[in-house]
Write a sequence for this structure.
């Protein structure tokens, strides 16, 4: 029999665990935006070496499952003498992984701008950095919003993978809960509701941002 | 230095790989006059125009604006970005595809260069942008974004953006080719007004009527060569060269119905 009470009771501990889900995906995307911008800049730079580096970065991180990346990072860092808490290692890995996708999102948005716009700016003597800050980036950011929201939602779900390095986020907390209550169905359904609630909120915020930016 | 010319083009060559887009071009653009570049598609007219403000880099020869070499400090030695930008400030350009910045209003499009390049305070720049827009007949559209303007209006904003910088030379790259026929007139009218004020203009165009009535000289190009430069009448009505005759015949056939 499905127990409504167990289902409702599961929300308390899972909501606590959701803090880690939000922390890992929130910091992960923040880190991913910064590194992604750098990788995108490298991919668009005049230097062959930088372009090559960006290409390798993107293909490695997109080509290896996040789960494997997490395990690699978790076991690799101590070997090279870096001891960081599991949470930090998880955030860094998620951020680095996201950077590959974000770099591609931005490269695509920038590439979608008609080259005539930068040409018109150059023709009246506007400096290259100003062309970037005033003409290219404002439009690229707006154009990339839907894809970035999509990436953030994927990250929230992918953050369930950091449970493998022992972080008590929603998925791991629900496993623990299921094991102690012997009520897996109720607990996992509660976990599903929590992920859904978070992602519906994010999608809503994304729509609001897009609407505002479109004016 | 020959100050009787606004632009002096001497022995200019331009290659795209093995393809030679410009072949030893010599052309003098007199100040305060309108020069139209005509010729079939792919003849190199736009390339030549774009070399004048160095949006397209020429490989050899010289282009001088009021005596000053553009793009190079010496043959083979490219000038700095800063120096090129200084020179471009004085050269307005209008493109076939308007190339307005869609995230800015008409007024912001015009004010941007004044703020970022001329360093004017925002209020000054906005006031001058408004003047320029009124001049092209768009005083009531200043707050519109480009998407809310017709093609003809967008092109007039683009002209306002260029003239607000107070250039000594204006380049027009097929300014009416992307417009619906009924919108061509409003853009040509603005260009005629500019010409009447004594602006030095170089216009790549397929509008033979404009070339006939407004140009002081017409240059005909084909296959990267400058075939002839002369008074409009002598190019358009009494062409000596067979290539010009054949081009005009095609033009007249296309426009006859």
């Amino acid at each position: 029999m499905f127990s409504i009470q167990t289902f409702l009771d599961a929300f308390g501990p899972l909501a606590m665990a959701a803090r880690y889900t939000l922390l890992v995906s929130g910091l992960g995307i923040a880190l991913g935006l910064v590194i992604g911008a750098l990788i995108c800049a490298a991919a668009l730079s005049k230097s062959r070496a930088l372009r090559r580096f960006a290409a390798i970065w993107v293909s490695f991180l997109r080509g290896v499952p996040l789960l494997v990346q997490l395990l690699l990072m978790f076991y690799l860092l101590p070997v090279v003498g870096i001891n960081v808490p599991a949470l930090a290692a998880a955030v860094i890995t998620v951020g680095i992984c996201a950077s590959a996708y974000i770099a591609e999102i931005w490269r695509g948005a920038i590439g979608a701008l008609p080259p005539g716009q930068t040409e018109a700016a150059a023709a009246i003597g506007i400096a290259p950095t100003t062309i970037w800050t005033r003409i290219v980036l404002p439009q690229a950011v707006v154009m990339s919003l839907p894809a970035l929201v999509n990436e953030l939602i994927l990250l929230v779900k992918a953050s369930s993978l950091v449970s493998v390095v022992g972080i008590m986020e929603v998925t791991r907390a629900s496993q623990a809960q299921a094991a102690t209550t012997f009520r897996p169905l109720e607990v996992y359904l509660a976990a599903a509701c929590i992920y859904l609630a978070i992602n519906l909120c994010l999608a809503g915020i994304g729509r609001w941002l897009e609407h505002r930016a479109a004016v | 230095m020959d100050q009787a010319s606004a632009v002096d083009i001497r022995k200019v060559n331009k290659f795209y790989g093995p393809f030679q887009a410009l072949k030893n071009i010599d052309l003098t653009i007199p100040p305060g006059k309108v020069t139209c570049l005509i010729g079939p598609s792919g003849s190199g007219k736009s390339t030549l125009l774009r070399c004048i403000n160095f949006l397209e880099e020429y490989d050899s020869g010289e282009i001088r604006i009021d005596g000053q070499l553009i793009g190079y400090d010496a043959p083979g030695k490219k000038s700095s970005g800063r120096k090129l930008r200084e020179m471009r400030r004085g050269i307005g350009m209008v493109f076939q595809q308007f190339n307005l910045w869609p995230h800015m209003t008409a007024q912001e499009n015009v004010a941007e260069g004044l703020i970022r390049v001329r360093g004017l305070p925002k209020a000054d720049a906005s006031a001058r942008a408004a003047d320029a827009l009124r001049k092209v007949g768009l005083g009531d559209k200043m707050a519109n974004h480009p998407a809310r303007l017709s093609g003809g209006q967008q092109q007039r904003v683009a002209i306002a953006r260029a003239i607000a910088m107070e250039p000594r030379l204006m380049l027009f790259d097929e300014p009416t080719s992307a417009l619906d026929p009924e919108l061509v007139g409003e853009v040509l009218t603005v260009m005629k007004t500019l010409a009447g004020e004594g602006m030095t203009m170089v216009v790549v165009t397929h509008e033979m009527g404009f070339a006939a009535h407004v140009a002081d000289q017409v240059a005909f190009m084909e296959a990267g060569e400058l075939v002839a430069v002369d008074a409009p009448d002598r190019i358009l009505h009494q062409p000596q060269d067979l290539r010009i005759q054949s081009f005009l015949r095609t033009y007249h056939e296309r426009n006859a119905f």
